[in-house]
Design brief:
Pfam families: Amidohydro_2 (PF04909). With 267 residues, this protein is an alpha/beta fold. 39% of the residues lie in helices and 14% in strands. The chain contains nine helices and eight strands. The protein starts with 9 loop residues before the first strand and ends with a helix.
Length: 267
Amino acid sequence: MSAAPEPPVIDAHAHIFTRAMPFTDTAWTRPNYDYPVEAYLADLDAHGVSFGVVTAASLFGEYNDYTLAALAQHQRLRATVMLDPDTGPAELAALRAQGVCGVRYQIPLAAELPDLGGYRFRRFVTRLADAGMHLELNLGGDQLAQMLPALADHGVPVVVDHFGLLRSEGGMAGPGFVALLRSLALGQTWVKVSAGFRLPEAELAGYATRLLGEAGAERLFWGSDAPFVGAEDRVSYAQTLETFYRIVPDAATRRAMSDAALRFYFF
């Protein structure tokens, strides 16, 4: 009988929330249940995962209060938040000291990006870099194709969510993924192998293999995307782990991904 796979050391992508939190006016869905930090930690413990990264959910916009309270209580967690681009260096430094590692950036697919060469955007990403924080992107393919080259000379680390493919048309041949590969080659970009259940099942292994070949394990992070908003009835935490073991079958590679995520988020 073969031994069970070693679980990841860190889950680099999950969301926590309660029904008391305010939804944005444009929230794409409005969950009518709670997934508090205690439930997330229980899922981690039940599956042998030691550390977690709370990722800002677009549903709640810049309401980061619950995440910050969770960080204050649990040293095994880190987080990203959503922020106004005019946030000043003192607030960024305070957030970094609380365990916030980066800022998540997500806009509707039909929305225009800000002026990427303009002062306001360049000031924002420069302040992130100065604070030792990263920019996390969940964008469409055309948006990624514009954003990633514009970030190349800023010195800010970039993390691209969900294989770089969740919101990108054209799959691995599309403009977003092509831009992602170019950005990976420059050495300041990482990718989350997360939310595989939202992508074509038959293509997941190919996506993972391509990213491993282009970026190496040291630039890939695994994330569950718990609590699987919009897919709660068909996905469990155990299933996200089973998918990870299947699409990245080599245990040493999976461990290298965990080590990379630990370094990135905790050290």
